[in-house]
Amino acid sequence: MKRLLSLNDFLSMSEEQIAEYQDRKFSAYVKYQLYVNSPYFRKLFKKRGIDPDEVNSISDWAKLGLPLITKAEYRENLAEMVLNPWETEGKARTLEQVAKNYLRFQEEAGELSEKFITVELPQKDVQARFNLVDTDTLRWLIKESPGSPDANRRLKQAMDYIYSPLTVFFTGGSTGLPTPITQTRFDRDLYKQSTHIMMHIAGGNWLHEKVGKLIGMTLYPYAPHQGWWVCSWGAEDYADFFISTSGGGVMPPEALILMIVRFQVNALTGMPGYVRNRFLRKALEMKNSMGIKFPDYMILNLGGEKIVPRVRNEIKDMLMELGVKEVKITGAWGASETRFNLLGECDVFGETGYHSTGFDKVAYRIVKMESTEEWDFARPGEDGFVVQFPMDGAGTIIEAFLLGDKAVQLAGPCPICGSYVERFVNPLRANEVDTQLKVMGLVEQKVKGASVNLTDLRSQLLELPEISELQIVIAKERQDDPGSSDVLRVRFALAKLEDINEEEITDKVKAKTKALSEITPEVEITDIDGLMGEGLKFKAIVDERPAG
User: Fold this and answer.
1) Which H helix or E strand runs over 63?
2) Closest to 300 (Cα-Cα) out of 321, 283, 315, 285
3) 274: left (phi > 0), else alpha (psi -120 to 50), else beta?
4) Three-class secondary structure of residue 75 per DSSP
5) Which of 212, 255, 308, 335 has a CB 3.0–4.6 Å from the CB of 251, allowing a cystine?
6) pLDDT digits (tens, 9 = 90+) for 201-223
């Protein structure tokens, strides 16, 4: 069994093969990494009287009555969820003990030194580092290290590569308390492999067929979060030429746009709100004043926010207006806690779902739950809460973690690429509405006693041609009085159309909202900058109600 899977595996493995692979690797990971090296989960198993040898599949987590982990629980146990192979309950381990535990996992999980090629790129630097922890090499070093200073040094180097923290990502920066997710050097290399697969299915292969070269640039804001660093660690490795910059950073959008023209950048990543409402609008202004033109063929991968059809269509139209002949626009979905399990679409506008491109490192499952203690796995086609089950890597490991999203898992192969990996549709981030006050994942909100699907309401209102962008706000009639009545407010910017009557469009918004929600909203007309605010991440739904 291989420990890491290739692009060919991604496209060719059956549903049964993937399930068997994940169960076997998960079982090995729980026994020889999670239980042995995670202070938090070792305590959890002992407290509940569970032997890690009882965990032979992902489904056993539910059968054994183990809980789901929330972000609040993680924040209270930050240090204890970082793998620490160097001690057990205060007692130090020797280098030989650390290496032997790791070797047991690798012997069951599969060999790293098998052909590590995900597309057609050998990644020689990654393979060289993987050779440090080759199974045969580790066996020899463990045998020789007691009497050999050189073998001991090399064994320490190998274990530091796997376990020593290198950096942290932070999650929740725009919606809550930033929470660190520790990464090791080995984790960084796992990111590269997953990103290769995601870039390939998200249009990299299509772009290479069209022009033979992928020239990339990221428009994500620079920050220690997954979006920016995936592009830095992974897309940079995949691209033929890559420019590390950031949207809204030191360089103004005008400079970034000129870089696209100068270097013929044909692959962009970024957040849809920033790309549509700021970046491409500025590019169109420069087209009119300077005559700039974008490359003939481009791919654009959008993430960080929900992408509604209206927004995706307008981005495509704007790129065409900038001279692009063909563009492949796909979405990305993920969270810093998932680390190297990135999810991406393989088709431009098809309902193919978000594919799990790191399915050999982290498994995703949909669960139905009453609480973190009362839950079970959902059936294919049922919506539920998204939960992750890591089975590789080191650093911060949060097993059975509630990501804060609801989604539906699709059954059967993808109609476009044919893959049987986990695919999800309709992901909704819970903290768009009510961050930590409810169990994560609620789609509907009670406003004035009525149950309102806010995401659907926004999508429907965006179909009005007079509206360019729109934000839904839930507030109180008196913000200083939590007991006062709820208010549904619709804030929107007008499209650049002739003869828009503000009174008429206001009445349209009120009537359509009333029909969809049984509530007559307050309406506020503003501009794009007023909706975007200071940040780059557009908040489509805002709950301004005070707690209490």
Assistant:
1) helix 60-63
2) 315
3) alpha
4) helix
5) 255
6) 889 999 999 999 999 998 887 77
Spatial separation of the C-alpha atoms in residues 206 and 211, rounded to whole Å: 9
User: What distances in angstroms separate CA 363 from CA 343, 353, 444, one per listed residue?
Assistant: 11, 16, 27
Q: Token digits for 86?
A: 């160097």
- Retrieve residue 315's tokens: 């981005």
DSSP string, 180-214: EEEEEHHHHHHHHHHHHHHHIIIIIHHHHHHHS--
What are the two backbone dihedrals, phi and then psi, of residue 30, each rounded to the nearest 5 degrees?
-60, -45
Distance between CA atoms of 145 and 126, rounded to whole angstroms? 25
Cα angle 528, 531, 535; round to 5: 105
In Å, how far from its chain's centre is CA 169?
A: 12
Lowest-pLDDT range of 114-128, 184-198, 487-501: 114-128
Among the listed residues 415, 410, 540, the one whose alpha carbon sits nearest the alpha carbon of residue 469: 540
pLDDT on residue 130: 81
Task: Calculate Rg over the CA atoms of the chain.
Answer: 25
* DSSP E strands, 477-520: 486-494
d(CA 278, CA 174) in angstroms, rounded, equals 19
Q: Which of 400, 438, 404, 403 is nearest to 48 (CA)?
A: 400
CA–CA gap between residue 102 and residue 159 (Å, rounded): 8
Q: How far apart are the first and last CA of the chain?
A: 54
**DSSP letters spanning 415-451:** TTT---S-EEEEEEEGGGT-TTTSSTT--EEEETTEE
pTM equals 0.79
- For residue 379, count other CB atoms closer than 10 A to its CB: 11
For residue 116, give the 3-state DSSP assignment: coil
CA distance 57 to 135: 24
Burial class from Cβ neighbours inside 10 Å (0-12, 13-18, 19+) for residue 373 reads: exposed
Alpha-carbon span 321 to 344, nearest angstrom: 26
Q: How confident is residue 268, by pLDDT bands cut at 50, 70 and 90?
A: very high
In this structure, are residues 450 and 519 in contact, taking their beta carbons and an 8 Å threshold?
yes
Amino acid at 445: Q
Dihedrals phi, psi of 95, to nearest 5 degrees? -60, -40
> Residue type for 299, please?
I
Beta carbons of 422 and 364 less than 8 angstroms apart: yes
> In terms of C-beta density within 10 A (0-12 exposed, 13-18 middle, 19 or more buried), how is residue 503 classed?
exposed
Mean pLDDT of 453-459: 77
Q: State residue 467 phi and psi, 5-degree precision.
A: -100, 130
- Which residue, among 381, 398, 380, has the nearest Cα to 389 in the 3D structure? 398
Q: Measured between alpha carbons, how far is 82 from 80 in angstroms, rounded to an integer?
A: 6
Cβ-count burial of 480 within 10 angstroms (0-12 exposed, 13-18 middle, 19+ buried)? exposed
Angle of helix 95-109 relative to helix 15-29, nearest 10 degrees, comes to 170
How far apart (Å, rounded) are the C-alpha atoms in residues 10 and 342?
Answer: 13
Q: Cβ-count burial of 258 within 10 angstroms (0-12 exposed, 13-18 middle, 19+ buried)? A: middle
